[in-house]
UniProtKB/TrEMBL annotation:
Residues 11-176 form the N-acetyltransferase domain. PROSITE patterns: GNAT. Signal peptide: none annotated. It comes from the Bacteria. Pfam families: Acetyltransf_3. InterPro entries: Acyl_CoA_acyltransferase, GNAT_dom. It comes from Bacteroides vicugnae. The lineage of its organism: Bacteria, Pseudomonadati, Bacteroidota, Bacteroidia, Bacteroidales. This is GNAT family N-acetyltransferase.
Length: 178
């Protein structure tokens, strides 16, 4: 039987569809999520529509990949998981994950991150994935370390949050088969 990527018993990861506009709009414009992104303005529906229409859903073409996290039992959209800043020459990319506030602390982020790592390493043959996480974000640090990421550095004053600079951990996961 052929191995099925991007799916486990609880969730699956899929490409972004036009129907995802409302949940993406809500999540991208949630001020509590802005601390972890590099964007300083709200997204318009127009910009999100352009993103969805322009994406080829091919990490090698787009240099990024956004997938929707979907609960299998009821097709509920739980959040998004991304590979960004993809560099084909070095076969690496940065991981970002956002789970809607109503579905946090239920293990969905762990499921999604494990599936993404499996896909990135076993199917795409990437060499490594990495993430930047604020040092005081214990939940996020625990998420990444539970999925095989290890701390390999501290970036001083890396993120500006509410007028104060905060340190970020650089977490890295190497492909175990390379």
């Amino acid at each position: 039987m052929r191995h099925s990527f991007l799916m486990n018993e609880r969730i699956y990861l899929r490409a972004v569809e036009p129907e995802d506009m409302d949940i993406m709009y809500e999540m991208e414009n949630d001020p509590s999520m802005w601390d972890i992104s590099n964007f300083t303005v709200p997204y318009s529906r127009y910009v999100l529509r352009q993103y969805i229409e322009g994406s080829q859903c091919d990490v090698f073409a787009d240099k990024q990949l956004r997938l929707m996290i979907v609960r299998k039992s009821d097709q509920c959209i739980l959040g998004t998981i991304d590979i960004t800043d993809f560099v084909p020459l070095h076969s690496r990319g940065e991981v970002g994950i956002a789970v809607h506030k109503d579905y946090r602390q239920q293990g969905y982020a762990t499921d999604a991150l494990k599936l993404l790592c499996e896909y990135a390493f076993d199917f795409l043959s990437l060499s490594q994935l990495y993430a930047h996480v604020m040092t005081d974000n214990e939940v996020c640090v625990k998420l990444f370390t539970s999925c095989g990421f290890v701390q390999c550095g501290i970036l001083k004053n890396w993120l500006q949050v509410e007028g104060c600079y905060k340190d970020a951990l650089l977490l890295q996961c190497l492909n175990p088969k390379k």
